[in-house]
Amino acid sequence: MAKQTNFARIYWIDAEIASKTYPNTRFLAEKYAVSEATISRDIAFMRDRLNAPIEYAYSRRGYQYSDHGFRILSSFMSPEDVRLFNMVVLPLLSFYKGTSFYQKIEKIVHIIIAPFLLDKDSPKLSENVARIIIPQTASTPVDSDLWSTIIRALHENRVITFDYKGLQDSESHHWRVQPWHLFFDNGVWSLSGYSEERLAECTFLLQRMRNPFLTNDTFSMPYGQDGVDVESYFGVIRGKKVYHFRIFCMEEAAVQVREQKWAADQVIEETDQGVVFSFSSSQDKKVEDWVLSKGCYACPLEPQWLVNFWNGHIEEMERMKNKRENLGIIKRENLEIIKREKILEFKK
Q: pTM value?
């Protein structure tokens, strides 16, 4: 049976090596009252499992860290902390898959949890690992060079340039931007920043950015740009103006409105047929998407531009319905038959 690693001793060895007194195996074994073989196993564990840059300094006849600033995390976690880390933190790693720094984050997490992998008194990290699930959403991989450029630009407050083709653009345009924030929303990474050409804040989807270049020009973050919308909670993308919204909701949309907090000042008015949902938000595009996602169970009352936007989509959907029927695609009566068949199949 494999011997259990004593992590109190591991942290103590780490402190001894970090003190730059060049302890050797005999010194560490005598001071901690264990065998030299035990210390040798500990040193090997620190190198192999904790990525400790331990090397033997022959001129000093003892161990040292080749990276003099290295230290092993010395905070202990309770069994409850380990369970929480296992069930909540580990699944969150999935958000960073497809990024250039995923492997680095995974390595850091493994260093943190390494002391518990062989500790017989700690909950096993394999226990309950699938009990809290964060479903994978559709996402687009981002080029590693682009990631590296953006991360460095954010860290050093440096201006970047890139080519970008928006959804409505027929060709790419060259941009020069002061990067402010990197956002992850609904499976998509976006960069917000100040466009030096447009003299305004803009948001860019990373999968549409090409030919990134990190300039030597620096900038200072403007006061109050924390990247968080304080009025509403529809995601990370926000606009420049705060609007007052009133939306009528029924059926499942009404249930969702009652059960969740969507805005700091939201007001819900109950009616015979549903609810009237009122709130303030600068996230006009996200509210548009939210209303459309509720289909026939939500319709906007205010502001007028949202009402016009919604009416326009209804007209487009009517035209699409006519095109579908002209092409001989499934008609409504056929959809009702399919729906009834699914219900009967479910009851079976």
A: 0.56
